[in-house]
Every structure is written in C-alpha cells, then in structure tokens.
Amino acid sequence: MKPIEDKCIPKNFWEEYSQEIKPALMKIDIAIKEQSEYISPRRAAKLLNITENEVKSIMKSIHIDKITSFNFFNIMLNSTSRISSLISREIETGVLSDYTPFDISYIYGLDENDVLNAFNFLGLEKINASLLKAVFIQIPVKN
Length: 143
What we know:
143 residues, mainly alpha, elongated
C-alpha cells in the first residue's frame, strides 16, 4: 500500500488556501480578463467547481443566454460553490483595509475561535492583507 504524502493533505489553513482557494481565484481572474467573447457553461462550471447543469439552471433563473466576463459574477454569486460563497462574503463585507477575527472567520468560513486563537497567538487585534498568511498558518485544518 502506497503511503499518503503529507504535502497533499493541508495541515493549516494557509496550505489549504495556497493549494485550493488561491489557484481557483487566479483561474477565475484570468478567465474574466481574457479577450474571448463568451465563457462556456462547461468552463464556468469548471472554474466554480460546480456542475454544468447548475450553471445552466442559474443562467435560466437569471435570464441570460451567454456568459460574458460581465455577467459571470451573477453566475458565481448564485452558485453553490465554496469559492462563490467566499467571494460573496468578501463582497458583502466590503473592501477592507483591516480585518478583524470575525471578518476572517466569516469570509473564509473558519471557526471563529480558531481565528481568535491565531490572532491572540500573534498578538494582533486587526490585520491587513499582508498578514493573512501569518494568521492562516496558525489555523488548523479540521478534516
């Protein structure tokens, strides 16, 4: 039996963020900035990690025939994907220059006590985006 490699299973939220969330955000960003006229339902589904049927159902419910970089966010904000939920919560909280433990807990769907413990360990009350990694490293991933 082949052993599971430790590097594949995130031990802290920074590893999970780096392996899953950040690459997904980058792919979405690239897709939106591309010069192509439309994003296919299949590609939108892949970007959001949902089914093509869910994309088509959302398209039908919001009355769009084709996905463009402008209406892709409408698809995203109506989908059930984790990345969509994260982006929706980030938009809901507004563009923040400083994050509280509650903000981080809410946006990333993390246990508030874990985030508070990370802030306390680092001696912080608020952070800016440059300190997200330091906080995320202190938050264990619960499998």
